[in-house]
Structures are given as C-alpha cells and as structure tokens.
Amino acid sequence: xxxxxxxxxxxxxxxxxxxxxxxxxxx
Length: 27
What we know:
By secondary structure, the protein is an all-alpha fold. The protein is 93% helix and 0% strand. It has 1 helix and no strands. It has one helix at residues 2-26. The model has no long low-confidence stretch (mean pLDDT 85).
C-alpha cells in the first residue's frame, strides 16, 4: 500500500515536471 502511494507520487512529480517543460518549450 505504501509502495503504491510512493509510486503514484513519483508519477505525479514526473508528470508535473514534464508539464512545466512542455510549457517552457511553447514559450
């Protein structure tokens, strides 16, 4: 259960970082 939460939090962090990079490329 805890491992799943850590896995999800890592995915969220990776997604938000890529999202910011995507906007940076648009600008």
